[in-house]
Amino acid sequence: MALVEKRYIAQNARSRMVGVMELKEFYKCVKRWLDFEGYSEGKSGGKLFDEEYYKHAFKEGGFVNIDIKWMATKKANPYITYKIELIWLLVAITKVEVIVDGKKLKKDKGDFEIRMTAWIEKDYTKLTKGTPWGFKWMQDLWERFIMKKEVEDHEEELRRKFMNLQKFIRDWMEQHIQSPMG
How far is CA 97 from each of CA 1, 5, 103, rounded to the nearest angstrom? Predict the structure, then answer.
């Protein structure tokens, strides 16, 4: 039995739109939401969450494909950690000029998709202090009696936060993405 267990709340939830928007602003807004909600504990221990990879590929015709993976982490207590993984799939991105309120602005046109997965990580190593003997009965005791309600409450809390994040992203896209114009 593993000393760290994952319990998935949502897997591969998608938010996708095609159109014109200011990608840099969208990126900042999602990052701010995560920071505001406390998902800013990166592996480095710094203020920012982990950007596990960033891939920028130029395509024929002046298009760019961008893949980004973020891992946002929030410690709920010494045993439970919330994790939200965001995978940005930005396809055929190109700069275009649009007129907004009589002003010409440069924006990004393309296919914008974010896939998100959320889970709770339960770390039993602190229960056993690193010793595997008797681990199974300790985990069962912890799961069934001592922390059952607390674990369920943490799952529900992460589910609510995840749904709020997904709604935030979809609302932002609906409000800021303009339909593609040629």
Answer: 56, 49, 10
In a domain, 59, yes or no: yes
Mean pLDDT of 81-87: 95
Q: DSSP H helical segments within 45-132, as ranges? A: 125-128
- In sequence order, what are the residues at sequence separation of 6 or more whose Cβ sits closer than 8 angstroms to the Cβ of residue 33? 165, 168
Q: What is the pLDDT of residues 29-67, one digit of tens each?
A: 999 999 899 887 655 555 557 889 999 999 888 899 999
- pTM for the model stands at 0.85
- Whether the CB-CB separation of 8 and 164 falls below 8 Å is answered with no
Q: Give the CATH number of the domain where residue 153 resides.
A: 3.40.198
- Give the Cβ contact number of residue 9 at 10 Å: 23
Tokens of 15: 């938010």
pLDDT, one tens digit per residue, over 153-165 is 999 999 999 999 9
Q: Are 86 and 76 in contact (CB under 8 A)?
A: no
Task: Count how many domains the chain has.
Answer: 1
Cα dihedral 60, 64, 67, 70 in deg (nearest 10): 170
Q: Helix, strand, or coil here: 6?
A: strand
Q: Which domain holds residue 141?
A: 4-176
H/E stretch holding 50 reads strand 50-58
Which tokens hold the place of 76?
Answer: 């709920």
